[in-house]
Amino acid sequence: MTTNKWKSAGLPRRTVLGGMAAAGAAAFMPRRIHAQEQITLRWWSPQSSPEQLAAYETQIANFEALHENVSVVFERTSDEGYAPQLAAAFASGDVPNVVTHLPSFAVSNYWRNDLVEPFNDVIEMIGPDKFYEGVNRIYEIDDGQYAGTSIGNSAANVIWLRTDLMEQAGIDKNPRTWDELLSACQAMQGGGIYGAPLPYGRNSMTSLVFIGVIHQAGGMVFSPDLDVAIDSQETRDALEFYRAMREYCPPGATNYSWGESLTAFVSGATATGLYTGRVLTNVAAQNPSIADHITCDYYPTISEEVEPWTFNDFPSVFIPKDAQNMEATKQFAAFLFDPEGYIQQLHAAPGHVLPVLKTIAEDPAYLDNEIIEKYREEVDLMSEAAANGYNLGWESPEHQPNTRAGEVVNSGVIAEMVQRVVLNDENVDEVLGETASRIEEIMAG
Amino acid sequence: MTAIATNPPRDRRSPLERAYARLGVLLIAPTIIVFSLVIVYPLLAAIYLSVFSIYTPTLQGDFVGAANYIELLTGGAFWHSLGVTLIWTVGTLSLQIIAGIGLALLLHQNIWFRSLARSLVLFPYFLSTVVAVLVWRWLFNDLYGALNHGLIQLGILDMPLDWLGSMPNAMIGVILVGAWKYFPFVVIAVLARLQTIPENLYEAARIDGAGPVGRFFDITLPQLRSVLVVIILLRAIWDFKEFDLLYLLTGGGPVTSTQTLSLLVYQEAFGLNQMGQAAAYSVGMMLVMLAFMVLYIRRTGGK
């Protein structure tokens, strides 16, 4: 019956069988069909200033132009909010394809829990020789396996200084030690201007900055073997310094995080600041009257014998293991380093995110930027500081990677320690002992 | 002895009644299914999770029995946060009720622009919490905030006050913002009830020589009792589990001074990735709320 129908339709049996064979063959070519399917890649990042969003749009448009069947959607998260959002995404299996600008220690934690796709292929696509030496070291948690890579470097705790106020106060050189910084703050404070916008809030900035202060005192949070080492004289010195700085900070610094701290310096409310190079673009856009009177330096340490310690969160790129369309995802992750888009992304906040590729840092297109040209010394200093920077996930070259660093930071235990000692004036020994115990509990899982 | 034969029990309902009963079951089934999915399942899931040690992103872990509950009872964090939650709830709810009744009484009078005022009073309630908090954070800001600026201009303060970063200011701040945000709910409900109180009750009271205060306590307040019971019950539940306003205003700080139980659960689940412990805190929170509600309903139910 069916045959008759085909015959009546004018289709000979040979043609029908040929068609069936072709359909069968097509079914066994999923990759080819897959390549024709329209797919969507999701990109998450906590960095989303208007200029950065414009750069992302360029990168997305360029990638989509090369791959007609791919569309990329950017979804913003935040520095304080990425942990719960990603936890929910991982738990539900509905993960983004690419995540950028999270601190390296967050990635290492996800890697340790088998939630991250190895990044080796992407590094190969970008070209391992193009990276600065050691950039990927922090992501090599297991030998030969990279959990991600840095999309940039950042020097998050350099000190920003108002040279005009220094001159007025008779300060002829940048403070190198804490004593010099305290004296400088005292000399510059007044007339509605505070000395510094250090954070004392119950948030990650306070934790991250204070970890730096412990190192600037010569101490560390963990020993190289990752035993808790926070209960030390150096931490006591760091707390004493932080307490001494309180009188030079605005009253509301007890609730400051990154945004408030940045704004305090950029608006001219404080004589010193502590931030990345985003200060440069914000001053240019929001308070150009001080643009000729700002500079940056390494944050002072307890004495000249103690080397500066720069906090670099090694803003990352990584791919969740459950991401759909892995081949396209890896291509897109590698494409983020394509010079045109990557340079635009870096120019979105010059000095804020610094290049990790030697080829880009030397590229005339990268150097051809008004702010980078104007503040070349500062950008070079931040680049050098960031290249030698660390974070809690990797406190020194001798340290093992700390895959629980993210949980220690997110627990707020270090910020709470600062608040209890500095704001509540609680007994230092007691607080330090409890803090050490809580960190040990977190490390034990 | 003789046995009395008995007939098996018969369904004496008519076919129509049986059909109605089946229809009833059919009609109520969607409600039961939805209720089971959105209430019973999450509740059971929370109880189930609370006896495991679970890493949040993977939702994998080991059975730990009552360990999470032992930590809850002996750890101190739960009790501290419960205390904070009670202070916040009682503080903000009291202000909401006082301000809500006061403004409802005012808006019940024949005042100019009454309609406009009735519309405007709802504004805080309709405003997104995130927007409201941003506005309040801006007002509280030490360097540029209108509040500090105004108080300094008036000569009340010499230096800016740290509104959200030190105690007791932080708790007072969140209580005030909470009261501002949610008192319109009380206004709406009380105003609606006020309009249904018979005017002749007030006339009789006036003839008996009752003044405004006497009329309020002897007529208005007793008439409002039923609606206030519902308002207090609902607002107490909502305030007890309030999260976004507190999280965005203070993040629970300074230290843990404004860390309510909701913030503790969040911190445990997503800061420390301990979903099991967070679930145990949630169950504890639910039990506390349940106990208060039962007590409250028993106290007020008979009146």
Average pLDDT confidence of chain B is 90
The count of DSSP E runs of length 2 or more, i.e. the number of strands of chain A, is 8
Going by CATH, the homologous superfamily of the largest domain in chain B would be MetI-like
Shape of chain B: flat
CATH class of the largest domain in chain A: Alpha Beta
Give the percentage of residues in beta strands of chain A: 5-15%
Domain ABC transmembrane type-1 (chain B): 82-296
Family (chain B): Belongs to the binding-protein-dependent transport system permease family.
GO cellular component, one term (chain B): plasma membrane
Keywords (chain B): Cell membrane, Membrane, Transmembrane, Transmembrane helix, Transport
Provide tags for this entry:
heterodimer; A: 445 residues; alpha/beta; D-Maltodextrin-Binding Protein, domain 2; 3 domains; five-stranded mixed sheet; disordered N terminus; B: 303 residues; mainly alpha; MetI-like fold; 2 domains; 13 helices; 2 strands; flat; Sugar ABC transporter permease (chain B); MetI-like_sf (chain B); transmembrane (chain B)
Architecture overview:
Chain B: It is found in: Cell membrane. Chain B: Keywords: Cell membrane, Membrane, Transmembrane, Transmembrane helix, Transport. Chain B: Belongs to the binding-protein-dependent transport system permease family. Chain A contains 22 helices and 8 strands. Chain A is of the alpha/beta class and 445 residues long. Chain A starts with a helix and ends with a helix. Chain A has helices at 2-8, 13-27, 30-36, 50-66, 82-92, 104-112, 120-126, 163-168, 178-188, 204-216, 233-245, 258-266, 278-286, 326-335, 339-348, 358-361, 364-367, 370-374, 376-387, 405-411, 413-423, 428-444; strands spanning 39-45, 70-76, 98-100, 149-150, 158-162, 272-275, 294-297, 316-318. Chain A has 3 domains: 2-32, no CATH class; 37-153 and 313-387, Periplasmic binding protein-like II (D-Maltodextrin-Binding Protein, domain 2), CATH 3.40.190.10; 158-309 and 412-444, Periplasmic binding protein-like II (D-Maltodextrin-Binding Protein, domain 2). Chain A is 48% helix and 8% strand. By secondary structure, chain B is mostly helical. Chain B folds into 2 domains: 17-63, no CATH class; 76-301, MetI-like fold, CATH 1.10.3720.10. In chain B, strands 1-2 form a two-stranded antiparallel ribbon. In chain B, strand 1 (52-55) and strand 2 (60-63) form a beta hairpin. Chain A binds chain B through residues 83-84, 86-87, 90-91, 110, 113-115, 200-203, 250-255, 264, 267, 269, 407, 410-412, 415-416, 419-420, 423-424, 442, 445, and chain B through 55-59, 140-144, 159-166, 250-256, 266-267, 269-273.
